[in-house]
User: Fold CMP-N-acetylneuraminate-beta-galactosamide-alpha-2,3-sialyltransferase 4 from Pelodiscus sinensis.
Amino acid sequence: SLPGVGWKILAGLALVLGMAWYSISREERYLHLFPFPVQDDSMLCPPGEVEKKATLLLGNYTRDHPLFLQLNNYFWVKTPSPYELPYGTKGSEDSLLRVLAITSYSVPQSLQSMKCRRCAVVGNGLRLLNSSLGEAINKYDVVIRLNNAPVHRYEADVGSKTTMRLFYPESAHFDPKRENNPDTLLVLVPFKPMDFLWLETILNDKKRVHKGFWKQPPLIWDANPEQVRILNPYFMEITAAKLLNLPMKQLRKVKQKPTTGLLAITLALHFCDLVHIAGFGYPDSANKKQTIHYYEQITLKSMVASEHNISQETQAIKKMLDLGIIKNLTYF
Ligand SMILES: *[C@@H]1O[C@H](CO)[C@@H](O)[C@H](O)[C@H]1NC(C)=O
Ligand SMILES: *[C@@H]1O[C@H](CO)[C@@H](O)[C@H](O)[C@H]1NC(C)=O
Ligand SMILES: *[C@@H]1O[C@H](CO)[C@@H](O)[C@H](O)[C@H]1NC(C)=O
Ligand SMILES: *[C@@H]1O[C@H](CO)[C@@H](O)[C@H](O)[C@H]1NC(C)=O
Assistant:
């Protein structure tokens, strides 16, 4: 019966056309052929995407290193580290052990089990002010924030979700409860052995230590120890060695250290499948009076005495943007 065969041919043709349309519509270069929005492409999450691209930039790239330092690596076995803080734990093992005994080191199951992690690394830059990016930022699976950057009263521009906050004692001047969510991981970036001591005394309510910090860290810090983690210094090492090409064999000769911001991007490259950055970048270096943060009145001048090399870090971030490893949500 011919009509039956005809229908089958027609159905087959429709199927082939449908499949062709589907595969074409998913390719970015054909997107302009479709006058209607196909999908919000920027938020798709191709598993392994960042991993593939990061290998190009980071050479010996591996995701085998735990995000946070683990008690069993210092208690049962003595894990040797070639570097001292902030690039390793050599010489700081005892104070580290005391902190690991009272904090936690697991990646929460809700994060660990995610098939694909879309991450936003939110810098503290002035560009976030009046950006209205808050809602967009809250949509990411993982939001990483830095230091004392506030969320309270800035929700419309910076969002309110904080999965991890990277900080060190001198930058811990934030209200751990008000500026974070109940499940935010408070991730200490250890720069010196004293940093472990600060955390131990403040969490155990022991006598505070005042000397040995370049700025007074908070003396009261109402955080739940179960939310606190110690960042694996491996990520600081990779940031210095691979992104900034610092001479790791003669570290005593270099004063330069990576910023928490660049470190956070490195961390994201090792944990996420999609990495978008917002609020990164500084004003033109000629403009010494322009404030640099969205929440405080400090200028580029205040960075001059720091151990950071802003222009070199800018180049490193530009390179990652150019290679398509990361994307920017604000002008960079
Ligand atoms: C890559 O890792 C191996 C083993 O850890 C090491 O021997 C080698 O020097 C590394 N290569 C680079 C370019 O870092
Ligand atoms: C943000 O908006 C406010 C009010 O509209 C304005 O006064 C301020 O100058 C803006 N700030 C920036 C950095 O654009
Ligand atoms: C920062 O790094 C650049 C490029 O590596 C270098 O030319 C410059 O001298 C450095 N600046 C400072 C202040 O060390
Ligand atoms: C990213 O930065 C570039 C300039 O470096 C800018 O042209 C582009 O608009 C920025 N993207 C977004 C989404 O702001």
About this structure: The pocket of 2-acetamido-2-deoxy-beta-D-glucopyranose (ligand 1) is lined by residues 59-60 (CB under 6 Å). Strands lie at 118-122, 142-146, 164-167, 185-188, 228-230, 274-278, 327-328.
